[in-house]
Amino acid sequence: MTYIEILEKARKNMSNLCRSCPVCDGKACRNTVPGPGAKGSGTVAIRNYEAWKQIHLVLDTISENKPVETKTTLFGKEFRLPVFAGPVGAVDMHYGDAYVDLTYNEILVKACKEAGILAFTGDGMNPEIMKVATQNIKANEGIGIPTIKPWTQETVMEKLALAQESKALAVAMDIDAAGLPFLKGFVPPAGRKSISELKEIAQACGVPFILKGILSVKGALKAKEAGASAIVVSNHGGRVLDDTPTTAEVLEEIVQAVGEDLTILVDGGIRTGQDVFKALALGADGVLIARPFVNMIYGAEAEGVNTLVQKIQDELIDTMEMCGAATIDEITRDMIH
């Protein structure tokens, strides 16, 4: 099936909160939470998408006509391209009851590995979500990254033990999830974490620790101090705080501050191979894409995942060819305007 055909099929499996739009730009779902939209006015998700469109590509075809290679490495593992599936939680509430987190993650982890990338898995109130997600990662040779929410230290350590058992490539925490209502109401209190608390988690990981939800140089420096190996520049898709900057706006200054010390990933409105190219030109080491993978699974499961990965790779190759980059490392700042 084509990408559009899969979207059409997904639409039939979705609740009316997600329209499986041809362009996932946050407009149709706007402030639908529950649903895939953004918090408050709903404009952050829209601006995330639009900010990448304000960055333009520099056409340059005066270069050696040789094959383009999109391979990249993350923590010593080689992947098909620097694009990874972002963590998604409560899929039945936000998208439709055709899947729940357990079945969604089972499909996602395996399908991403088969497509040559990896998936970040989500977390939730049900302990089985992390248990099953890490079992799936283990069954797929550790090719996956479990994402733990900022629960109490005791709960984090319990979930971290499951992550370690899975032999996962790395462990992530979406620290910005502190803004989610169910975390705010969690007893004992969960949410924001101090540098010392994060340092304790990082030291206990045994694998690279990724902090997702960094949106400033200040935050990036704190993540570095806490012992993170990587960060994800992210505003949680606009779902935890209205009126934040877009990720495209803050990425470059964060790269300039900590890019020599940390692996830097970015998400938020990235939808095409052209967007991926722009993020790499601004200094990111890779990108996360979340909502479109949900639609692909709801439409065609593993086939949908592979179709999306192929689509993005084809677009990235075309952009690299037309901008003069033969490898990911050859993508530079002067190739965007």
Topology record:
Elements: H1 3-13, H2 43-53, E1 72-74, E2 77-79, E3 83-85, H3 91-94, H4 101-115, E4 120-121, H5 127-139, E5 145-148, H6 153-165, E6 171-174, H7 181-184, H8 195-205, E7 209-214, H9 217-225, E8 230-233, H10 247-258, E9 263-266, H11 273-281, E10 286-289, H12 291-323
Parallel strand pairs: 3-10, 4-5, 5-6, 6-7, 7-8, 8-9, 9-10
Antiparallel strand pairs: 1-2
Helix pairs in contact: 1-12, 4-5, 4-12, 5-6, 6-8, 9-10, 11-12
Overview in brief:
The protein is built from twelve helices and ten strands.
Question: How would you characterize this protein structure?
Answer:
This protein has 337 residues and is of the alpha/beta class. It has a single domain, classed as TIM Barrel (Alpha-Beta Barrel), CATH 3.20.20.70. 43% of the residues lie in helices and 11% in strands. It is built from 12 helices and 10 strands. Strands 3-10-9-8-7-6-5-4 form an 8-stranded parallel beta sheet. Strands 1-2 form a two-stranded antiparallel ribbon. Helix 9 (217-225) links the parallel strand 7 (209-214) and strand 8. The mean pLDDT is 96.
